[in-house]
Each structure stands twice: as structure tokens, then as C-alpha cells.
Amino acid sequence: MKPKTLLMLSLLTLGLGLFIAFYERDLQSTDERRVAEKKVLAVEADTITGIEIVNGQGRRIRLEKEEAVEEQAQDPLSKPPEVWRLTQPIQARADTDGLTDLISRLTSIEKSRTLNSPELSQLGLDQPELSVTLHTESGPKELHIGMELPLSGDRALRGNATDVAYQARIDPDLLDLMGRDAPDWRDKRIFFEPRNAIETLALVRGDQEIRLQRFGDDEKYRLVEPVADAANADKVRGLLTALVGLEAAAFVDPETAAMDLGLEPAQARLEVGLAEGSKPWLLELGFPRTDDPGRLWARYSSADESQTVEISSPELEEALAGSVDAWRSPQWSAFQVFGIRRARFSGAGKDLEIERQDNGDWSRDGDRIEYSAASDALYPFTEIQAESLVGRKQAEARFDLSRPRLTATLSDGEREEVLHLYPGDDELAPASLEGRDTVLLIDSAAADDLMDNIEALRNAPTVVETLQE
Length: 469
What we know:
24% of the residues lie in helices and 32% in strands. By secondary structure, it is α+β, with helices and mostly antiparallel strands. It folds into 3 domains: 33-185, Dna Ligase, domain 1; 195-327, no CATH class; 337-468, Immunoglobulin-like (Sandwich). The chain has a 9-stranded antiparallel sheet, with no helix packed on it. A hairpin with a 5-residue loop joins strand 20 and strand 21. The longest helix is centred in the N-terminal third of the chain and has 22 residues, at 3-24. It is flat and about 100 Å long. The model is unreliable at 70-78 (pLDDT under 50).
């Protein structure tokens, strides 16, 4: 065979192979087609844009999926979770998890038998017990559920057409979902923003207003009113956890008088400032229920809805009832020990500096030392918590703050903290952080242990010395 002819045949074979591969890449396999043929509703879940459920008495519930904004639709990585809304008979945000379960169960129904030219009245399909219409990008897909068939336990079903019916096993949980009343399709959550969208928190009860502001990319907050101070990280985390997990135990008729519920005026208020200039989210707390003191009347207001509800959240109540002192951080340093890259100590003998290397090892004045010596010295700065917080004048009435016993300068490579430890008495020792007006009174024994660890760090052998022993 001539080389030119062989080349042409090879190119034709390659082209044919590529065409077949391209044409068949989206075609279902034999097994996939067999499974798809068994489905009563051959619908892809992500093509469903609306759901309509009707029972035998004509009660109609309609739910619609909100469209993603154009930027989110074009970028799957930034696409938020789907949001569904109740549009009939009431307007409210819908239980998306319940809808996901409903869609999954509907699209999983498999027919065990096809009934051609059925007598609909004999199958309960002339007036179905339940009907659902899935509105999709390619048009509506109907499913009507009739009577339970004798002996089999299956149900009679039909789709859009009236000249064919099916026999299929229906999960009782699916019937329960389809039988829900409209209020049961409401989303019980009342706060939908991610934690990292929160910029400010304001807690108001009576004449007291406590305001916190986030700084940095993580969940670090500072007090800005009524005093400027570092915020208690544990209390902030507890409040955020309670907030994002907050659910309505019940929804209250909007006609109920707000004054009777203790909401006019409110007994306490939580205002959440959101990123990018969004409207703040507001929660107002009213009276506890007389028959169930664990529940409170409350009213929340967001950018797109306002609703009176019953809630049960002891963590949230505790946060709103706390004094400003409870929100002040008892921690000496805001760093965590693993985040410290460099530390310098002065005031207790010769100045001392340690630095973490890229491989995680520590060096002291240029010489490599054991990791444990450095971590033991740094750990107390990040873990010691104050027994109490006082103003500088109050601390000076008891302690000598003219000269620190120890000054530690800690750095994570981007920011720096300067901490001072002063002479104390048998019970407490004063400590401070530059830039913070508060004086922390820490346990004297813990302060002495810290000084011992610094001395141990100063005298710790280098790695070379350890190997030579």
C-alpha cells in the first residue's frame, strides 16, 4: 500500500474514532438507560425551578427557587446554597433542606408496572389524593398519586398523560412531606448570613448598650462601646454560634399586639451590622411565655422580611443579660502560641530573643534550641487569663507599676504585641498590654512560673550542645 494511501486511511480512522467519542460522550450507558426508563419522573434536580403540591381537597402550595445573580451563576465556586421561597398561600422563605429531600424522593420513584388505558376512577386517579407539578426548564412534569393497590402495597400513579398509569412503591416519608401544611414548609431559621459577613454586634438592654466590631479576616472582635477594649473571644464565639443556629419554635400571627408580647417596647435588642453596607439585621426580645418560660416572644427584621416568632435560646439570653465587664477579654495576649514567629524578653537579666525558623525549629540569639524550651516559655502568655480586670489607677493603689518585672514583645510577622508583667503580692500580679488601658490581675503563682520558664529558656542548651553530651 502506498504511504500516501496509508496516511489517508489512518487520518480517516482517527477522525471516525474522534467523532464517535465526541458523539457518544454524553449518551447514557445501557445500565443508565435501564435505570432511567424505570423512573416515573425523569427529571434532573438542578433543572427544577418551582414545585406545586395539591391535595384531594384542593389545598394548593407553591414553592419557587430564587434565581442566582448573574455573577454567581457564571462562577460555580462562588455559588451560594439554593434558596427556595413559599409563594402560595403565604409568602415566606422555605425549608430548603426539606425541599431537597422531597425532590430526591420524587425523582427516585421507580415504576414496577405500566397500566395502559387505565380506568382512572378505579385507581383513585380521577381525584388524586396528592398531586405535584415540577416546573422545569423544559416544561411542567406532573405526578398524581392515587389509591393503594390491594395486596401489593404499591400506589397507582400517573404523569401528564391520562392514557397510561403506573404501579409503584411510595415511601411513607414522601407522603408525609407532600402532606405538609404551608406553615410547615417555612424555614425555621431566622438568621441566614454567614458568620464572616458580620461586621458589628450591638447588644442593648435598658440603658446599657454594648457594641463590638470585627477586625481582621477571622472572628476577632473588639469592644468599642461603652469602653474600648479587647473583647472576650469565648463569649463572642458563643454569641455567633447561638445567632447562626437560631430557629423559630413557632411563628406568631402578625395581628397579635406587640405590646402584649413585650415587644413594644422590646425588653432587649440585638443588632447585627453586615458587610457591604447591607441593612442591619435586628432581633428584639419580648416577654417569656407564661406557660413555658423557656420560650420568648421575639421579632426579627431583615432586608426582605419582618416576623414575630417564639424562640428558645438560653445562650442568646445570657449574652444580652451580661454586663460590659463580662465582654472584656481576660486574655493577656490575643496570639495563639503556634502563631508567634518571634519573641523578645527584657527586664529579667540579659535581653533574650527567639525566632521560629521556616522549618518550625526555634533559634535563640541565632543558635538552634529545643522546641519545648521555646513553647514552654511562650505558652503562658497566650493561655494566662486574668482573675479580674481593673483600671490603671485602681491597680496603682495596690501595686508598683513604675517598672516592669518583665517585658515581652511578641510578633506573628505582621503585627506586634508588647506585654508587661509587674511585681505583685502573694495573691495577684498586675500585667498589661500596650494599647489597652486595662490592667489584668493574674495569679501570682502563674506569674512566678512564667518567670521560671523564661529563665529556663535563657539557660536551655542548644541542639548542638545536647548532641555533644
